[in-house]
Amino acid sequence: MGPRLRVLAAAAALLAAVTACTSSHSTTRRTVRRHAEAEHAYPVPSVTTPVPSDSPSGPPPSKLPDPECAAGNVDVQMPEPEGASGNAVATLVITAESHTCTLTGYPTLTLVNGNDKWKTTTARQPGTEPPATIRLAPHQKAFAYLEWARIGGNGDECVVRPTRLLVGLPNHGGDVPVWWPTGTTGSICGNRVFTSPFERG
């Protein structure tokens, strides 16, 4: 082979090597591009770690019931009674003071004259329903209505005249002293004072 033919053969071999290298790089670029497109089409999901809560689990604690009204937490007043025929009627006004409390039932009534004390008859007024529980927030009021005979059956004024009334709160709530009217409206016949249950005002 002459010198010219050897040069041509070497050039042909070099061209073939360059073509093969170029084809290999193109294939590699296409493979890399396909992997990139695949990763873009199907992104890897992110994982979120839950943050523990500081709040306690389970239901909230139940609220304690309101206490019953007691002598140290209520104010009891009795405005001037009114006379009607031979009877007298009056209203007990019970006001909650420092905290919420409940009343259920009837007051107990104790008449006082000097050192003498005697309980009166507590009776349900005819036709009333069983007493309901009354919830009194501070400064709210409840009422009980009293009635007694002040003139005897023969028309004479009764001689029992107490000077004070002790109002007993239900369920051993204690006694609260209340003034008792003087004069004929303060006379009691038969040692009986009828009272209604406590009612909301």
Describe this structure in words.
- With 201 residues, this protein is an alpha+beta fold.
- It has two domains: 1-42; 71-200, Immunoglobulin-like (Sandwich), CATH 2.60.40.
- The protein is 19% helix and 28% strand.
- The protein contains one helix and twelve strands, in the order αββββββββββββ.
- The strands form three sheets. Strands 1, 2, 3, 8, 11 and 12 form a six-stranded antiparallel β-sheet that branches. The protein has a four-stranded antiparallel β-sheet with strand order 6-5-9-10, with no helix packed on it. The protein has a two-stranded antiparallel sheet with strand order 4-7.
- The N and C termini lie far apart (132 Å).
- Residues 20-25 and 38-42 have low confidence and may be disordered.
- InterPro entries: DUF4232 (IPR025326).
- Residues 1-22 form the signal peptide.
- Residues 23-84 are annotated as: Disordered.
- Pfam families: DUF4232.
- This is DUF4232 domain-containing protein.
Radius of gyration, in angstroms, nearest whole number: 49 Å
Helix-strand pattern, N to C? HEEEEEEEEEEEE
Q: What would the principal axes of the Cα set say about the shape?
A: elongated
The total count of strands amounts to 12
Distance between the termini: 132 Å
The CATH top-level class label of the largest domain: Mainly Beta
The main β sheet shows up as: 6 strands, antiparallel
Kindly identify the CATH topology of the largest domain.
Immunoglobulin-like
The unreliable regions are 20-25, 38-42
Helix content: 10-25%
Q: Which whole number gives the mean pLDDT? A: 75
Give the number of domains: 2
CATH architecture of the largest domain: Sandwich
The assembly state of the depicted protein chains is single chain
Count of helix runs: 1
Strand content: 25-35%
Structural class: alpha+beta
Keywords: Signal
Biased composition (Low complexity): 43-56
Protein name: DUF4232 domain-containing protein
Region (Disordered): 23-84
